């Protein structure tokens, strides 16, 4: 808990600092990332959990493995389970010392990676879920909230009582966006729908996720969703005969009857483009959102989800693919205050930094 | 009552883990050896249970693997501290780190995957059909073992048999025990091994019954809580089981409270098991000053025995 809290502080301070500095791109950035031969390229990947975690890191690792087919002569190395501590700085520095020209961190390491990036201006750094753009550091993230919204529509139709349960890790902005988007999707078809959140202080803890899932079902929820790397609560949903939607990957084998869908991640195309750009000397640090259908999407619907419900949810997905945003006012927070006025649409950046829960969500912040 | 039934069921399941480990530790500490490796032995037991159950498709063999692993780990500790007279605190902590690290390596391939063979629930004939509280009597074999079979067996063994008397003598005054012909080192070694076996079994309880999946760090301090419970329960097996149940209840409060929407921050609710540990350590001493003598640790706890110093 203390980790995420200090992370939040760091992020805020960084943002403020970035705002003051006006993010000047240093001259010479253009020559810094000169074209490089494929066999000379060394890319270092830093992961927050084991590569076989069954979720977030596994999806990144899958994309990295796919890179080897496209760039067989490129060399890469990875370190898994990097803690959010000074150890992270040491590991990223090690990548630089090994001679890496690109360092990609698949999770947000804030200052720990920024310090290393500042000291190695000729090395390109990318941080997933990051917030900093400097002369050699950029970030990328998925706009998972659109997929969550689609799943939310199905959730409201499948739930008998409109009570959704959400198993959260920490009350960070990504988690808030995910929970909010799911309930907004649900409320678009059932305005009475509510969501109860339990935070278990971990991204990967099957025991706690299962306990939280069971507690939510006991309190009357009949649709579980969340943001976990493991299928813990899906198994509980299967046993107790309720529905469940997952994150990261297709987990239907762990609860075929309960499985509704999943916020599916796919970094293959993005990593390929990034490496291509770096080899060609075109890579520049920037903030990139991977949009619906291009890195994030809902998974193929579960076997027991009725066709009519699939069609209804997919209709919203089609509209979003055509450019429509469901995150349009009026949107109220859980205290009943209008936070997004009627007619105004939240930008992806605003959703990325969502720090309040929408009306109907309880227990998150 | 029905509203709190989920809480009780959860407490029984999670409490059984603590009860098994704590009762094993009671046996070891009664003989004068403090085993701080419980956390590591639980982690090893948990992962070996999964690997064996996956390979053999039998939860019983998984259980056996956990028992053997726990015993073997404790045997190492026993040989070092009892026969080698090494520092018990240091060796115990080393065993914890060894167990946590080794289990992470062994379990890397099965992390997050469901276990192939697990224990189902056994119902008590008659009682399980009682209205309202029936589900309390439909439990995994571990729960019956932890809360009924083991407390009775351990209590009778420790306080009603000559073997138990000798074991306690070894923990209180090894020199005197030695003088009347009790083999001190053999008693201590067997007590540590038995305690280790139960710690391994507690790990198996987690992965083969309570939540059938292995993940790194899943023991999450339960081994340390078990060690704390032993002090809290005054080195008595029946009290150890009872306080484990109480603790299971405290641990369940976090999820139950959040699901019920109690106006307490989730961060605070998630702290309850650890706050509870501190509270339980302080409260008895404050409330009943006379308890201190009654609940005292075995006099020779943690002190290696040298016959020459008699």
List the main descriptive attributes of the protein structure presented here.
heterodimer; A: 365 residues; alpha/beta; Rossmann fold; 6-stranded parallel sheet; 12 helices; 15 strands; 41% helix; globular; B: 310 residues; mainly alpha; ABC transporter involved in vitamin B12 uptake, BtuC; two-stranded antiparallel sheet; 69% helix; Basic membrane lipoprotein (chain A); ABC-Purine-Binding (chain A); PnrA-like (chain A); TAT_signal (chain A); lipoprotein (chain A)
Describe it for me?
Chain B: This is Inner-membrane translocator. Chain B: Pfam families: BPD_transp_2. Chain B: It is a multi-pass membrane protein. Chain B: InterPro entries: ABC_transp_permease. Chain B: Keywords: Cell membrane, Membrane, Signal, Transmembrane, Transmembrane helix. Chain A: Keywords: Lipoprotein, Signal. The complex is a heterodimer of chains A (about 375) and B (about 300). Chain A is an alpha/beta fold and about 375 residues long. Chain A has two domains: about 1-140, Response regulator (Rossmann fold, 3-Layer(aba) Sandwich), CATH 3.40.50.2300; about 145-265 and about 295-360, Rossmann fold (3-Layer(aba) Sandwich). Chain A has twelve helices and 15 strands. Chain A has helices at about 1-20, 30, 55-70, 85-100, 110-120, 145-160, 175-190, 205-220, 230-240, 270-280, 305-320, 350, and strands at about 40-45, 75-80, 100-105, 125-130, 135-140, 165-170, 195-200, 225, 245-250, 260-265, 285-290, 295-300, 330, 340, 360. A seven-stranded mixed beta sheet of chain A has the order 12-10-9-8-6-7-15, with helices on both faces. A six-stranded parallel beta sheet of chain A has the order 2-1-3-4-5-11. A two-stranded antiparallel sheet of chain A has the order 13-14. In chain A, α3 crosses α10 (about 270-280), α6 packs across α7 (about 175-190) and α6 packs antiparallel against α11 (about 305-320). Chain A is globular and about 60 Å long. Residues about 1-30 of chain A have low confidence and may be disordered. Chain B has a two-stranded antiparallel ribbon with strand order 1-2. With about 300 residues, chain B is mainly α. Chain B has one domain (about 1-120, about 140-300): ABC transporter involved in vitamin B12 uptake, BtuC (Orthogonal Bundle), CATH 1.10.3470. Chain B has helices spanning about 5-30, 40-55, 60-85, 90-105, 140-160, 160-170, 175-180, 185-210, 220-230, 235-260, 265-285, 290-295, and strands spanning about 120-125, 140. The model of chain B has no long low-confidence stretch (mean pLDDT about 90). The N and C termini of chain B lie far apart (about 60 Å).
């Amino acid at each position: 808990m203390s980790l995420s809290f200090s992370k939040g502080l760091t992020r805020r301070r960084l943002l403020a600092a970035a705002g003051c500095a006006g993010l000047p791109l240093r001259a010479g950035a253009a020559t810094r990332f000169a074209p490089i031969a494929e066999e000379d390229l060394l890319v270092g990947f830093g992961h927050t959990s084991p590569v076989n975690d069954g979720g977030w890191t596994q999806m990144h690792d899958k994309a990295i493995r796919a890179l080897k087919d496209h760039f067989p002569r490129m060399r890469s190395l990875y370190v898994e389970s990097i803690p959010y501590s000074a150890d992270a700085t040491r590991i990223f520095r090690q990548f630089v010392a090994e001679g890496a020209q690109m360092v990609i961190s698949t999770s947000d390491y804030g200052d720990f990676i920024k310090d290393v990036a500042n000291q190695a201006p000729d090395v390109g750094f990318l941080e997933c879920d990051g917030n900093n753009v400097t002369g050699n550091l950029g970030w990328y993230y998925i706009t998972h909230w659109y997929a969550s919204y689609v799943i939310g529509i199905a959730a409201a139709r499948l739930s008998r009582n409109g009570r959704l349960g959400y198993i959260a890790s920490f009350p960070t902005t990504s988690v808030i966006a995910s929970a909010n988007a799911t309930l907004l999707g649900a409320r678009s078809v059932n305005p009475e729908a509510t969501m109860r959140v339990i935070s278990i202080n971990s991204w990967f803890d099957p025991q706690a996720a299962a306990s939280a899932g069971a507690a939510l079902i006991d309190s009357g929820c009949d649709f579980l969703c969340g943001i976990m790397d493991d299928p813990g609560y899906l198994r509980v949903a299967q046993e107790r005969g309720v529905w469940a939607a997952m994150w990261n990957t297709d987990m239907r084998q762990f609860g075929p009857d309960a499985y509704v869908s999943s916020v599916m991640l796919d970094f293959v195309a993005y990593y390929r483009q990034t490496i291509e750009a770096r080899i060609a000397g075109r890579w520049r640090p920037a903030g990139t959102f991977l949009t619906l259908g291009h890195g994030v999407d809902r998974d193929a619907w579960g076997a027991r989800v009725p066709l009519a419900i699939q069609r209804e949810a997919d209709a919203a997905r089609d509209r979003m693919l055509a450019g429509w945003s469901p995150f349009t006012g009026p949107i109220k927070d859980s205290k009943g205050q209008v936070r997004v006025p009627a007619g105004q649409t939240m930008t992806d950046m605003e959703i990325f930094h969502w720090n309040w829960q929408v009306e109907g969500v309880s227990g998150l912040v | 009552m029905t509203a709190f039934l989920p809480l009780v069921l959860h407490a029984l399941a999670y409490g059984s883990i603590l009860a098994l480990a704590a009762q094993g530790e009671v046996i070891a500490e009664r003989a004068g050896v403090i085993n701080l490796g419980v956390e590591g032995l639980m982690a090893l037991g948990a992962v070996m249970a999964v690997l064996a159950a996956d390979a053999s498709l039998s939860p019983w063999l998984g259980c056996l693997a956990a028992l053997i692993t726990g015993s073997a780990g404790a045997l190492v500790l026993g040989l070092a501290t009892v026969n080698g007279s090494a520092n018990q605190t240091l060796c115990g902590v080393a065993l914890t780190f060894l167990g946590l690290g080794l289990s992470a390596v062994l379990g890397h391939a099965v992390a997050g995957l469901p276990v192939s063979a697990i224990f189902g629930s056994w119902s008590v004939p008659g009682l399980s059909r009682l209205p309202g509280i029936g589900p309390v009597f439909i439990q995994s074999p571990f729960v019956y073992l932890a809360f009924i079979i083991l407390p009775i067996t351990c209590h009778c063994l420790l306080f009603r048999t000559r073997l138990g008397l000798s074991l306690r003598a070894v923990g209180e005054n090894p020199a005197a025990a030695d003088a009347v012909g009790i083999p001190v080192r053999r008693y201590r070694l067997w007590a540590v091994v038995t305690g280790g076996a139960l710690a391994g079994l507690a790990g198996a309880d987690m992965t083969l019954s309570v939540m059938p999946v292995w993940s790194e760090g899943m023991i999450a301090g339960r081994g340390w809580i078990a060690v704390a419970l032993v002090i809290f329960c005054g080195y008595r097996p029946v009290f150890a089981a009872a306080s484990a149940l109480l603790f299971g209840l405290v641990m369940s409060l976090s999820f139950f409270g959040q699901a019920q929407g109690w106006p307490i921050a989730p961060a605070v609710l998630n702290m309850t098991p650890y706050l509870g540990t501190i509270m339980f350590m302080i409260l008895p001493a404050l409330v009943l000053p006379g308890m201190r003598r009654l609940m005292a640790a075995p006099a020779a706890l943690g002190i290696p025995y040298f016959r020459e110093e008699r």
